[in-house]
Structure formats: structure tokens, C-alpha cells
TrEMBL record, chain A:
UniProt keyword Transmembrane, yes or no: yes
This protein's encoding gene: nuoM
Cellular component per GO, a single term: membrane
Localisation per UniProt entry: Endomembrane system; Membrane
GO-annotated biological processes: ATP synthesis coupled electron transport; electron transport coupled proton transport
Taxonomy, superkingdom: Bacteria
Molecular function as annotated in GO: NADH dehydrogenase (ubiquinone) activity; NADH dehydrogenase activity; ubiquinone binding
Protein family according to the UniProt entry: Belongs to the complex I subunit 4 family.
Name this polypeptide is given: NADH-quinone oxidoreductase subunit M
Spans through the membrane: 29-50, 83-100, 109-128, 134-151, 163-188, 208-225, 246-265, 271-291, 303-324, 330-352, 373-395, 407-429, 458-479
Record membrane topology: Multi-pass membrane protein
UniProtKB/TrEMBL annotation, chain B:
GO cellular component assignments: endomembrane system; membrane
Transmembrane feature ranges: 6-25, 32-60, 80-107, 119-136, 142-161, 173-193, 252-270, 282-303, 310-332, 377-399, 419-445, 457-478, 498-517, 594-613
Positions of the NADH-Ubiquinone oxidoreductase (complex I) chain 5 N-terminal domain: 70-120
Any one of the GO BP annotations: ATP synthesis coupled electron transport
All copies of domain NADH:quinone oxidoreductase/Mrp antiporter transmembrane, residue ranges: 136-412
Keywords per UniProt: Membrane, Transmembrane, Transmembrane helix
InterPro entries with a match to the protein in the record: NADHpl_OxRdtase_5_subgr, ND/Mrp_TM, NU5C-like, Proton_antipo_N
Compartments, as annotated in UniProt: Endomembrane system; Membrane
Keyword Membrane recorded: yes
Protein name: NADH-quinone oxidoreductase subunit L
A GO term for molecular function: NADH dehydrogenase activity
Highest taxon in the source lineage: Bacteria
Species, as recorded: Exilibacterium tricleocarpae
Length: 509, 614
């Protein structure tokens, strides 16, 4: 029930935000903040309530929704979902904090969209009925479209439509795959169901399984995004308002990675195995292509966007490497990249808010006037380039270590990304904060007007820094949360997992 | 001894305090900054002394503490734990001892810099990371320290950030060493895949039981680890970053780029010596790289005019001797030379710092001259330092380097050849170091700096004096570490011994002839059409920068620039464009003219009928 409560709070508070704007335009942001803090508390309660993490599923709720088609309200979480829920709600708070002063126009509708997107994401991380999952997939998409299209920057309509079409087309592929999967299951067993736990045991013919797997795979890697489906991301990120970018990079991309782990691997273990070379090739290309593209950008947000593609390539690699280290590395990278990319987009947004430009050629020497902002930027660039001691390193190290065990060639090529990352990440520091005040082109320079971080910014960046450092030195707690889920995945890839999933599934709490 | 963790904690605490306090209280007073910055290292040095005392008294061969379980994923288990033995203790002594002296010196040297607190916070972080590097009981934690020192090196090379050139040098240092680090990381992956363990002592114990000497696996792993070592220690072919690293403040060059961080590669190889001993080919490569680097960097040092770049190439060259020592099996000799080198090179760099500060940031040695009267303290420092660098008898450098030379002669196979190369390197060392002394301190006083007065407070003079004493006598106690394989002691021919001692004197004589007594003019030699290209080739560091630029940097930039608009996007743009085009075409048919509709209807019917009939 607590899961439905979580989603209901976000949906309800969203409506409240929209309605309250007409009374006082200041109210929506307070309502949104209160709702997200409450959700954070709920997630914490969830975590403490199931702290023993015995068994894979911590919580499970099932009720009929459209029984005629075998569609149910199936919600369940394991350690993986719980961590991602925590990330979602935490970054939700950060997103509200970044939007605090930036969004003044139609703020009620803005926070409505923000909260509904987050509600969609929470639904994605908890729904285990495939139809319900698809429903939340759409719920997440449409408010985000509005966020980009209404509060975005100069080229927002183009970016919003591009984002929408990419996600929608790939979502349709997934819907097709879901329906075919359900009907195949009906064909084989005579039971029409969209329930994840029932569909897990569908003995599909290999050919069909392969094609269905491709349908899911494409939907998820478009979201991730992976080369060659990535081109919506730089546009969407660049044009989205700061809070939109924070949610997009920190949370929405993770739904793709989650989908790969939750659906593609367990539903089609053999097909995924067969497909692994292709997928790992795409992952490796993403790592290097993203890094090379990031290096070529002048727009701060575009640079961070391409670096996300590079980091998400590691996740594709890990998902198909099929061993415990790689899976744990993937989860850690999801969390770490969520934090660091959210922070970098918040920084880029902060810079744009101050300077009215994202062009790094017009910046430079800001360390002199804003050393705090510079230090924060330095910290997150170092996190992004995988400095040991910070969360991102743990993720990438485990991924490469795990991948090396199963596919050394891919690991070695992807490791070149470790060389490419400082090339672009340190360039940000050089171009924006180092150098002489005034930047390279003094006539167009925007320097001097860069004020240092204020209390609000300091506090949310400090929260992000604290979590990143904590995960870098004490990652063991997260590993223990996800260990049962990882074990289930490993059992799937080696066959004979049915007992594990069903055996440990408890009833609703 | 269970308080081992205190040693890196003090500097770390110093870093945290210097970073966070200004956030709440605004800029700190300089005295407080200096107190925290240098004091933390002082406490760390005291803790090292105390722990060393207890450790030596206990008679234990080694000691291990685990602070917490860092990573535990399936069969991968990595702790946050420290390991102490005589090798670690030696390194800790060098890091905290020399580090403390350099910190004290910096209190005076940096006193007018606006980034005072930032400087000390980075320095403290560096010492903490360096201590983690040498104390780590597993390779992942070692890697943490390894990357951490790389970060601090980057931050401090680019310390004066307003000059984009410094930023470039800093990034170059980070990226070039990252190339080596990546090779090392792959080495760790391979080690884990094969042995299932990354704890250093377990690896060292397991390796000889699992692999045959000369096998492919130990060779591959040793080569990958060597990749990391040559990157960090600026050896061929990754040495290009170190001379550019001189863009940082001079105490940095003394601490990071002479005494400690750049010797991390030597430490790594010594620490994992059982793996290297299983790979004789890799070990031979270590020796060859060392000897070649020692000689090549010597030639380049001879042609430089920037006082710090001369010392930088000299460092590259001296680390070459340490690699040579490792390669020929003089394990303790390498660490011994590491220690004495830390003394005399720190002395030289800090002396150079005094010169530079006194002459208002002058770096060109040919704009100096006759400085022995104006800068007496720096003069004495350079005399002692250069004598030790050239390995003149009775100085610390002599004891460590002489041992390496003799061990090289005794090495089977390539031994005598390598000895000859190393001997030529020793000649060059004496030549370039005394060229520096003669040019800067002798001859007519420079016209550029007549009014120069030596800048030396107590904080700068005392560390120089202590380092001077160490550079002289720091080699008397011969360092023989019990946890490294003993050097094979074999008699060498008397002539070899004699030549090894005599050659540096020949180098000094030549330097005196050219730059002291001026019996011939080196400038005319440099202008000689035959020698000029050679000199320029040496000056440019044997064209390595040029090569890497053409081979790697330019293509990378070219690809990035060419594809900055993302070629993949054109595919999707084409889909969008063709859709729009099709839409246009179809909408064109909707003309509203009845004739058209009738005609197309008729034509369509005819075509359909025709298709149906045939």
C-alpha cells in the first residue's frame, strides 16, 4: 500500500500545485517541496521496514485492474527498485531547489508536470504488470514534453518534439512486444495475463523471443540512450530548463537501464545471451563516441549530455556482461551518474541563469569571482571522470572488472574511455573557471557578472557531494541492498531461476 | 601500531579544514593556514616516527590493519586496509619527512600568493593520497592513492590558473599519466580474472604458485603494471608530461615532481616484485627503459636553459637509474636511490625556488650569473645538491648510485651494455648539473639582476639546511630492506669500480672547461651547422611531443571537430526531411480541380484493370 501511497502523493500534490497557483504563485513550489520531502520520508520508512533484505522482493501488492484482459495493479519492489526510488525522490527535491528562482512563469503547471513525471518514474520502478508499466512509461513522457516545450530555451519546440517522437516510437515497439508476449503466453498456457511474474516462465520459441527481446531492447536503449539512438538527448538536455535537465539526466535515463535489468534479461535470458555481442558493441561505441562528441562541444549542457551517453555506454556493457561485479557496477553507475550529472546540469543551469549563455567560449576565469562554484564544478567533473574515492569510480571499476571477466576485448576498448573522460571533463574547468577573466574572446565575454554560489545552491550541492563521497567510500550498503536482485539476474542467465523468484515473493504489506 | 591510520588522517584532516573552514568563516588568517597546512604534516611525520619506532622494536616482519570492508561483490573482496613493512616505512618516512620540510619552506615561499589556503589544502590532500598509495594493502586502494596524487599534481601544476598555458600543462600531465593508469587498471582486471584476488600480499604469494617463470600471463600483467609505472614516473615513452609540469609553484616540483609522486612507479614495481620476477622479459624491459631514459633525459637536460626544466629532465634521468636498478635486481638499491634522490633533488628544487624568488621569477639560467655572492645559501645548496646528483664520493648520491652501477655490471646478459649506457648517463649528469652551477653562480654578475637580494626567511632557510645535511650524509646508513630480495653481491673488476667513480669528475671537468674557465665556447658548438639540428632535437625532448601531437592529439581533435554536429543526427534529419517531402508531394495532389480528380480516377481505374487482366 505504501507504494501506491507514494504515487498518489505525487499525483495529488501535482494537481494541488496546479490548482493553488491562482491563489498564490508562491504556493506551488512549497507544495512540491513538501510532497517530495514526504516521499523521501516514505522511502526511508520503506527502507528501514525492510532492512533485513532477506529474499529478493521486499514488498508486493496485487489487485485486479482490468481482469478481462488479465491486467492487474501489480506493484513490487526489491533492493534495486528501492535504491532507484530513493534516487528519484532525492533528485526530485534537488530539481525543485534548482527551479526555485528560475521558474516564475506558470509555476503551478510547471510543478504539476514535474511531480507527474516523477510519479511516472516511481510507477516505472515499482510496476510489475507489463501493461501498467507501459502506462507509467507514457505518464512519465508527456509531462516532460511540456516541461521542455513550455519552459525550455531558444529551440525548445524542436527539442521537445524530437524527444517525444523518439520515445514514442520506441515505446510503441515495446507495446507491440508486450502484447505479442502476452498473447504468446495465452497461446501456450491458455491464460491471458500481463503479470510480470507469470510471464517470466513463458517458454517462447527462440526466434520469437529474439524479436521480442529486440523490441524491449530498443525501447530501453533509446531511453538510456545508446549509440545510435542518442541524438534526441543533446537537444532535449540543452533546451530543457534546469530542473528538467536534472530529472532527465538523473532519473529518466535510469528507467532505460532499469528496464534492461528488470525485463530484457529475465524475460529473454537466452535471447539476451545471443544478442550480447551486438549490445556490448553498441555500449563500447557509446562510451567512446560520447566522449569524443563531448570533447567537441562548446555548449556546456551539450557537453554534459554527450558525457552522459558515454557513461550510459558502460551500463549497456555491464548488463550484457552477465556477472555479479558488472551488475553491481551498473547499479552503482546508475546512482553515481544520477547524482553527478544532476549536479553538472544544475551547475550549467546556474551559469546560464547568471550569464544568459551556455557557450564556454564566452566564459573564463570565473574561479576568481566564484571560487565556491568553481570548487563544486571541479568536484563533479572529477566524479564524472571516475576519480577513485567517489561513487562513479566504484561503478565504472566494477563494470570494467566484470566485463573483463566475460569479454576482455570489450573491456579493454571501453577502458580507453577512462583516458578520454579527463580530456573533456577538465576542459570544462579550464574553459569556464580557469584562464584569465574574460575568456578567450574578450569582446563577447560574459565574465564579471558571475556571482558565487548562494546559500540555496550551496546546500543542495553539498547534499549531492556528501552522497557521492559516501557512496565512494562506503558502497557496501548499496551492494547489500541489490545483492538479492543481482543473484536473481545471475540465476536467470544460468537458467533455472523460477523457484527463486516465486519462492521468495511475499504478499502485500 | 593500530594507530597506523593516523598517519594519512592528519593531512586529510588538514585538507578538509582548509577547504571547509573558509566556507563558514571567510578567508582564514595566513598564520592559521600555515599552522594547519604545515602542522598537519608535522603531526603525520611524528606519528610515522612513533609507529616506526614501535614497529622496529616489535621485530615483526609486517603489520596489517583493516579499517572497513570497502567492496564485497561476489568473489571480489577489497578492504580499506593498510599494510606496514620496512618498504612502506621507508616510503612513509620520505613522504612525511621531506614533505614536512617542503611544507615549512612553502610557508615562506608562498607568503605573498593570494591562493595561500588553496595551496596548502591541495598539498595536504596530496600527502594524504601519497600515504594511502604506499600504505595500501591492496591494489585497488593503491590505485585510489595513485589517482589521488595524480589529481593533486594536476591541481598544483595548474595552481596559477589565470595563465591558460599552466592549465594546458596540468591537463597534459593528468591525461598522459592516465594513459599509464589505464594500462595499470587493465592489469588489475587481468590479475583478478586469473588469481581472484587483489590484495598485494596474496597476489605476491599466489603468483609463484600459479604461474611458471617466463609465462605469458605474468609477463602480460607485469607489462601492464609497468605501463602504469612509466606513466607516473615519467619514463620512456610517457615522460613528456614532467618537464611541462614545472609550470607549478617550485615547492610542488620539489615535493611531487621530484621527491615523492614520480617515484611511485618505482615503489609499485618493488611492491609487486614477485610478479616481475616471474617475468624476466618484462624485468629486462624495465632495465632497458631505465637506462635509455637516464641517458636520453641527460642529453635533453644539457640543452635546456630554464633552471626548472633542467632539474625536471634530471629527475626523469635519475628515476631512470631507479628503474635500471629494479630491472637488474637491485631492489633495495632502487629504493635507496629513491630516498637519497628525494633528499638532494628536493634540496636542488628548493634552492632553485630561492633563486627564482630572489630574481623576481627569472627562470633563464643565462640571465643569471655570478650569483654566488648575492645568493650564498642557494649557492651552497646547489653545490651540495649537484655533487650528490653527480654521485661524487662521500655524498649520499654516491652510495646509492654506485651500488646500482655495480649491480648493473653484474647483471647477467645485458649487464655490461647497460652499465656502459648508465656510465654515459652519469657523465651527462655531472656535465649538465655543473653546467648549471657554473652558469648561475660563477662568471661575471648578470646585468639583469644586479640588485637581487636573497629571499630567505627562517622558514625557508631551515628546511634548506636540513635537506643539505641529509643530501650529504643521508647515504651513510646503507639501506637494505629485508622484505625485498637481496642484491646478488659479486666482485667487479677494479677498473669498472674506478671508472664508475671517475666518470662524473670527467663530466665536471668538461663543464668547467666550457662554462667555468671558458677554454672553449659552447655557444659556437651549438651554432655549428652539424650540431645545431642535434641540439634542437635534444632540446625538444627528442621530438616526442611533436610525434604524439601528430599521431594522437591532432587526429583526435580533427575527428571531434569534423563530427561536432554529430553525423548520426543527419540520418534522423533525413527521415524527418523525407517525411516532410512526401507530405508535400501528397498534398500537392489535392488541387481542388475536378478535372484532375476525374482524370486521375480514370487513369487509376485503367491501371488497376490492366494489372488485374495481365
Amino acid at each position: 500500500m505504501i507504494l501506491i501511497g507514494l504515487i498518489a502523493i505525487l499525483f495529488g500534490a501535482g494537481l494541488l500545485c496546479w490548482a493553488s497557483e491562482r491563489y498564490n504563485p508562491q504556493w506551488p513550489k512549497w507544495i512540491a517541496l513538501a510532497a517530495l520531502v514526504l516521499s523521501l520520508v516514505l522511502v526511508a520508512v520503506l527502507a528501514t521496514a525492510s532492512a533485513d533484505h532477506s529474499g529478493a522482493w521486499l514488498l508486493r501488492f496485487e489487485a485486479a485492474w482490468i481482469p478481462r484482459f488479465g491486467i492487474g495493479l501489480v506493484f513490487a519492489i526489491d533492493g534495486l527498485s528501492l535504491l532507484l526510488l530513493a534516487l528519484t525522490v532525492f533528485l526530485g527535491v534537488i530539481a525543485v531547489a534548482t527551479a526555485w528562482k528560475e521558474i516564475t512563469h506558470r509555476s503551478g503547471f510547471f510543478y504539476f508536470n514535474l511531480l507527474w513525471t516523477l510519479a511516472g518514474v516511481v510507477g516505472i520502478f515499482t510496476a510489475l504488470d507489463l501493461f501498467l508499466f507501459f502506462f507509467f512509461w507514457e505518464v512519465m513522457l508527456i509531462p516532460m514534453y511540456f516541461i521542455i516545450a513550455i519552459w525550455g530555451h531558444e529551440n525548445r519546440t524542436y527539442a521537445a518534439i524530437k524527444f517525444f517522437i523518439f520515445t514514442q516510437v520506441s515505446g510503441l515497439l515495446m507495446l507491440l512486444a508486450i502484447v505479442v508476449l502476452a498473447f504468446s503466453h495465452y497461446h501456450l498456457t491458455g491464460q491471458l495475463t500481463f503479470n510480470y511474474f507469470d510471464l517470466l516462465q513463458t517458454p517462447l520459441p527462440p526466434q520469437l523471443a529474439y524479436w521480442l527481446m529486440i523490441g524491449f531492447f530498443i525501447a530501453f536503449v533509446v531511453k538510456l540512450p545508446s549509440f545510435p539512438f542518442h541524438t534526441w538527448l543533446p537537444d532535449a538536455h540543452t533546451q530543457a530548463p534546469t530542473a528538467g535537465s536534472v530529472i532527465l539526466a538523473g532519473v529518466l535515463l535510469k528507467t532505460g537501464a532499469y528496464g534492461l535489468l528488470r525485463f530484457v534479461l529475465p524475460l529473454f535470458p537466452d535471447a539476451a545471451q545471443q544478442f550480447s555481442t551486438v549490445a556490448m558493441t553498441l555500449g563500447t561505441i557509446s562510451v567512446l563516441y560520447g566522449a569524443s562528441m563531448a570533447f567537441a562541444q562548446h555548449d556546456v549542457k551539450r557537453l554534459v549530455a554527450y558525457s552522459s551517453i558515454s557513461h550510459m555506454g558502460f551500463i549497456t556493457l555491464a548488463v550484457f556482461a552477465a556477472n555479479a561485479q558488472a551488475y553491481q557496477g551498473a547499479v552503482m553507475t546508475m546512482l553515481a551518474h544520477g547524482l553527478s550529472s544532476a549536479a553538472l546540469f544544475a551547475l550549467a543551469g546556474g551559469l546560464q541563469h547568471r550569464l544568459h549563455t551556455r557557450d564556454m567560449r564566452r566564459m573564463g576565469g570565473f574561479w576568481l569571482t566564484s571560487p565556491r562554484l568553481g570548487a563544486i564544478a571541479l568536484f563533479f567533473c572529477l566524479a564524472a571522470l571516475g576519480l577513485p574515492g567517489l561513487a562513479n569510480f566504484i561503478g565504472e571499476f566494477l563494470i570494467l572488472l566484470g566485463t573483463f571477466r566475460s569479454a576482455p576485448t570489450f573491456a579493454v576498448i571501453a577502458a580507453l574511455g577512462m583516458i578520454a573522460a579527463p580530456v573533456y571533463a577538465l576542459l570544462v574547468i579550464q574553459k569556464v573557471f580557469h584562464g584569465a577573466p574574460g575568456g578567450a574572446d574578450t569582446d563577447t565575454a560574459a565574465a564579471g557578472s558571475c556571482t558565487d554560489a548562494d546559500r540555496r545552491e550551496l546546500s543542495y550541492f553539498f547534499a549531492l557531494i556528501a552522497v557521492t563521497v559516501y557512496l565512494g567510500f562506503f558502497p557496501q550498503a548499496t551492494f547489500e541492498w541489490t545483492a538479492p536482485a543481482v543473484q536473481v539476474l545471475l540465476d536467470f542467465s544460468s537458467g533455472g531461476a523460477d523457484t527463486l523468484v516465486l519462492g521468495t515473493a511475499g504478499g502485500g504489506r | 601500531m593500530d594507530k597506523l591510520w593516523l598517519v594519512p588522517t592528519f593531512p586529510l584532516l588538514g585538507f578538509v579544514l582548509l577547504t571547509l573552514l573558509p566556507l563558514w568563516f571567510g578567508p582564514l588568517p595566513r598564520r592559521l593556514t600555515a599552522l594547519i597546512g604545515a602542522g598537519s604534516i608535522g603531526l603525520s611525520a611524528l606519528a610515522t616516527l612513533w609507529i616506526g619506532q614501535v614497529f622496529l622494536a616489535s621485530g615483526l616482519p609486517d603489520y596489517n590493519i583493516t579499517l572497513w570492508q570497502w567492496l564485497q561483490v561476489a568473489d571480489l573482496s577489497v578492504t580499506f586496509g593498510f599494510y606496514l613493512d620496512s618498504l612502506t616505512l621507508t616510503m612513509m618516512g620520505v613522504i612525511t619527512g621531506v614533505g614536512f620540510l617542503i611544507h615549512v619552506y612553502s610557508v615562506g615561499f608562498m607568503r605573498e600568493d593570494p591562493g595561500y589556503a588553496r595551496f596548502f589544502s591541495y598539498m595536504n590532500l596530496f600527502v594524504a593520497a601519497m600515504l594511502v598509495l604506499v600504505m595500501a594493502d591492496n591494489l585497488v586502494l593503491l590505485y585510489l592513492g595513485w589517482e589521488g596524487v595524480g589529481l593533486c599534481s594536476y591541481l598544483l601544476i595548474g595552481f596559477w590558473y589565470q595563465n591558460p598555458r599552466n592549465g594546458y600543462c596540468a591537463r597534459k600531465a593528468f591525461v598522459v599519466t592516465r594513459v599509464g593508469d589505464t594500462a595499470m587498471a587493465i592489469g588489475l582486471f587481468l590479475l583478478f580474472k586469473e588469481l581472484g584476488d587483489l590484495n598485494i600480499q596474496s597476489v605476491n604469494a599466489l603468483a609463484p604458485t600459479q604461474w611458471d617463470t617466463g609465462g605469458t600471463l605474468p609477463t602480460a600483467i607485469a607489462l601492464l603494471l609497468l605501463g602504469g609505472a612509466v606513466g607516473k614516473s615519467a619514463q620512456l615513452p610517457l615522460q613528456t608530461w614532467l618537464p611541462d609540469a614545472m609550470a607549478g609553484p617550485t615547492p610542488i616540483s620539489a615535493l611531487i615532481h621530484a621527491a615523492t609522486m614520480v617515484t611511485a612507479g618505482v615503489y609499485l614495481i618493488a611492491r609487486t616484485h614477485p610478479v616481475f620476477m616471474l617475468a624476466p622479459d618484462a624485468l629486462a624491459l624495465v632495465a632497458i627503459i631505465g637506462a635509455a631514459t637516464a641517458l636520453i633525459a641527460g642529453f635533453t637536460a644539457l640543452t635546456q636553459t630554464d633552471i626548472k626544466r633542467i632539474l625536471a629532465y634530471s629527475t626523469v634521468s635519475q628515476i631512470g637509474y631507479m628503474f635500471l636498478a629494479l630491472g637488474v635486481g637491485a631492489w633495495s638499491g632502487a629504493i635507496f636511490h629513491l630516498m637519497t634522490h628525494a633528499f638532494f633533488k628536493a634540496l636542488l628544487f628548493l634552492g632553485a625556488g630561492t633563486v627564482i624568488l630572489s630574481l623576481h621569477h627569472e627562470h633563464d639560467i643565462f640571465k643569471m650569473g655570478g650569483m654566488r655572492r648575492q645568493l650564498p645559501l642557494a649557492f651552497i645548496c646547489f653545490l651540495i645538491g649537484s655533487a650528490a646528483l653527480a654521485a661524487l664520493p662521500l655524498t649520499s648520491g654516491y652510495y646509492s648510485k654506485h651500488a646500482i652501477m655495480l649491480a648493473t655490471w653484474n647483471a647477467p646478459g645485458l649487464g655490461p651494455t647497460l652499465w656502459l649506457v648508465a656510465l654515459a648517463g652519469a657523465f651527462m649528469t655531472a656535465l649538465y648539473s655543473f653546467r648549471l652551477v657554473f652558469v648561475v653562480f660563477f662568471g661575471p654578475p648578470s646585468e639583469h639582476h644586479r640588485d637581487a637580494a636573497e629571499q630567505r626567511g627562517l622558514t625557508m632557510a631551515v628546511p634548506l639546511a636540513i635537506l643539505g645535511v641529509l643530501a650529504l650524509i643521508g647515504g651513510y646508513a646503507h639501506l637494505e630492506l629485508d622484505n625485498l630480495p637481496a642484491t646478488i653481491a659479486a666482485p667487479v673488476p677494479g677498473s669498472v669500480d674506478l671508472l664508475t667513480i671517475a666518470v662524473p669528475f670527467a663530466g665536471i671537468l668538461l663543464a668547467y672547461a666550457g662554462y667555468g674557465a671558458r677554454w672553449f665556447d659552447p655557444q659556437t658548438l651549438a651554432r655549428n651547422p652539424l650540431l645545431k639540428p642535434l641540439r634542437e632535437f635534444w632540446y625538444s625532448g627528442w621530438g616526442m611531443d611533436w610525434l604524439y601531437d601528430k599521431l594522437l592529439v591532432a587526429p583526435w581533435k580533427g575527428i571531434a571537430r569534423f563530427n561536432s554536429a554529430d553525423v548520426i543526427d543527419t540520418v534522423y534529419s533525413f527521415i524527418a526531411w523525407s517525411n516532410r517531402g512526401a507530405h508535400l508531394l501528397v498534398s500537392m495532389t489535392q488541387t481542388g480541380k475536378l478535372r484532375w480528380y476525374a482524370a486521375t480516377l480514370a487513369l487509376g481505374t485503367v491501371l488497376l484493370l490492366g494489372y488485374g487482366l495481365f
